[in-house]
Amino acid sequence: MNVRSLLMLGLLLTVTSLPAFSQRWNQQDWSDLRHRLAYNLDLKPLFSKHPFWRLSLDQRMQAVKEIACSMGMAPSLALGLIEQESGFNQSARGPFGEVGASQVMPGTARLYQLDQERLASEFRYNVAGGLTILKSLLSQFIELDAIAAYNSGRPLHASPPQVQEKVRLYVASVLARKEKYEEARCD
Fold first, then answer.
1. Contact by Cβ (8 Å): 69, 78
2. What global pTM score does this model have?
3. Do 21 and 88 share a structural domain?
């Protein structure tokens, strides 16, 4: 065992002794932990599925705000989009392969050279990826069309007629949520 594994083991023994945590683990979880420690594998996938290790809603919202601000984007728009996409839920999965809080599609992830494993497992990485996509769309279209393109892959006027109503409702929902977060400012 290397130093990293020993430190992780010490931390794990401390944390897993807490009743709130240990009651959430089953035999398979413990087996997976032993395997990952023995072969020096990444532990994040194991811990990300347990609520004990997840960020609170306030922490997730703060992270979205910080990422948006670091990208020069209005935090109200970022918060509105992520709330609409997943309700700030990193575990969200869509019917077409969308993953994480910002519901990034596999093809879009490839286009923007985003790591799909990290998109699925890391909240901040997922949000940064989603906001990178949105920022790119904002550089090409007005806000309304950028939001529409985030949802459907194209601006509203270029969407097929049978999709336009769904996209209009999506855009209206994001904009209403954006308004809800108008007080959010970059520090």
1. no
2. 0.72
3. no
Kindly write down the DSSP assignment for every residue of 168-184, as one continuous string: HHHHHHHHHHHHHTTT-
Residue among 122, 57, 67 nearest 88 (CA): 57
From CA 44, how far away is CA 100, in angstroms rounded?
Answer: 15
Residue with tokens 């032993």: 34
Q: Are residues 70 and 43 in the same domain?
A: no
Please state, in angstroms and rounded to a whole number, the distance separating the CA atoms of residues 143 and 139. Answer: 9
Q: Same domain for 113 and 46?
A: no
> Rounded distance, CA 102 to CA 88, Å?
8
Taking 90 as the threshold, does the pLDDT of residue 54 lie above it?
no
11 CB contacts (<8 Å, ≥6 apart)? none
Chain-centroid distance, C-alpha 185 = 21
Split into its structural domains, the chain has a count of 2
Q: Are 167 and 186 in contact (CB under 8 A)?
A: no
Asked whether the predicted pLDDT for residue 101 surpasses 60, the reply is yes
* Residue 99: strand pairing partners: 93, 104
Domain of 153: which CATH number? 1.10.530.10
- Report the DSSP beta bridge partners of residue 104: 99
186, part of any domain: no
Q: Among 11, 35, 53, give the residue marking a domain's end.
A: 53
Encoded amino acid at 44, one letter = K
* 109-123 pLDDT, tens digit each: 999 999 999 999 999
Name the residue range of residue 81's domain: 57-180
